[in-house]
Amino acid sequence: MTGLRERKKADTRRALSDAALQLTLERGLENVTREDIAGLAGVSPRTFSNYFSTKYEALAYRQTERLRRSVALLRERPDDEPLWTSITEAIVGPVQDDFAATKGDAYGPPDRARLAVLRSALTDRDLRNSFPRSLFDDFAAAIAERTGTDPHRNTYPRLVAAVVHAVVEATIDSYVTLDPPVAYPQLLRAAFADVAAGLPAPADRKV
After folding, report:
1. Cα separation of 82 and 63, whole Å?
2. pLDDT digits 0-9 by tens, 142-181
3. Distances from the Cα of 170 to the Cα of 55, 65, 84, angstroms
4. CATH dotted code for 62-196
5. Per-residue model confidence as pLDDT tens digits over 112-130
6. Pick the CATH number of 1-52 from 1.10.10.60, 3.90.1150.10, 2.60.40.10, 1.10.10.10
7. pLDDT in tens, 13-24
8. Domain-by-domain residue ranges, the chain?
9. 164 within 8 A of 171, measured Cβ to Cβ
10. Which residues make Cβ contacts (< 8 Å) with residue 67, sequence separation at least 6?
């Protein structure tokens, strides 16, 4: 029974988050209320409050949940695999799965109109602050386990987690601004490949 109850809770969270995204794309984030989200998801405003404190948390949920899955996946990667390969697969895997499930093709070209709305929403400080930084603490702990370091005594695991955070932030910004558009999983893979290579200067850079 506990498993079924937890699955129902997870389904409600996803339904609320999906409703928040749908309404944001239709109206713009500033024109969406918690009551609107609850109504579209088919639950009461009180139920919404049982799951999320704000509309920003609801909208950020899918990204937050992907990062939670990434931490678990990192712990499951082969011990002898290069660290940045493990991190790349752990981060990109859940993104590919979600994009494939919702769009049918994780690497298909994004819709420009959709990106324009997301670009506006992502400038909202409340939304950006809704991604819990504690997840990157969890990532640092997983990296410490993998590398045999102590996150409280060694800088390395926290430094790697900070780089992961920066890559995620930078690729989100690129995803909503690049013209022509590029699929988010593709941007993530390219960014982590650059990090793994030591961030060499682009060969075709403009001086």
Report:
1. 25
2. 999 999 999 889 999 999 999 999 999 999 999 999 989 9
3. 23, 19, 17
4. 1.10.357.10
5. 888 999 888 888 888 888 8
6. 1.10.10.60
7. 999 999 999 999
8. 1-52, 62-196
9. no
10. 91, 131, 135, 139, 168
Rounded to 5 degrees, φ, ψ at 65 are -65, -35
Tokens, residue 196: 């793994």
Q: What share of the chain is helix, strand, coil (3-state, %, to 5)?
A: 75, 0, 25
Q: Which two tokens stand for residue 130?
A: 């809704």
- The 10 Å CB-count burial string (b at 16+, else e) for 158-173 is bebbeebbebbeebbe
Radius of gyration in angstroms for the set of CA atoms belonging to the chain, rounded to a whole number: 18
Long-range CB pairs of 196-205 (<8 Å, 24+ gap) are 196/82, 196/84, 196/85, 196/88
pTM tops 0.85: yes
CA dist 131 and 63 (Å) reads: 8
